[in-house]
Amino acid sequence: MDNLIRLNIKGISYSQTQTGAYALILEEKVGGRKLPIIIGSFEAQSIALALEKDINPPRPLTHDLFVSLGKEFHLNVDSIYIYKLEDGVFYSNIVFLNEDGNRAEIDSRTSDAIALAVRFNAPIYAYEHVVEKAGIHLDIVQEEEDNISRTVNQLEDELDLLAGLENDLNEYEGWTKDELDTEMKKAVQNEDYELAARLRDQIDNMEN
Length: 208
Hints:
This is BFN domain-containing protein. The chain is about 45% helix and about 30% strand. By secondary structure, it is of the alpha+beta class.
């Protein structure tokens, strides 16, 4: 098997070819080749949040949950590596270590593997044949800070919206089921479906 190449995250930017997708740019730590990987918006948001570090979502994301589980059961991500590119899809493994030094490799989507690598401060690698096949010499028009900040700005807006919805629900603490049901119907009439759905969930919780 050929050598592993250490990669760093160069930036995240909007995909120019796929609507609603993002391009995650990985770059050789030593060398000029860059590896563009198309990822979904959720994964892009998760990676951007982990890179920014000073933004905390109101509730843990799926990748944050993995970190909590890892700490609870003394598992650490040692590294991740991209081992194959086939039909435009990158294949990756996550290398886990427990407190006794036992090692396990788990197959993963590359975007998930990188989201965990950032959270565990684990190195990112790719095999030479993958970098040779998919790597390009690419001039990034914007610095990686600008690319990541653009994504983070969107996330801040979404997190502000979530926080606002939670504050809205706090206003209804102590309300009866009938009062909540009336408020939910008002939300539907006002086409505020996000609030209506959350009020519905709160009513369901009361019934259960």
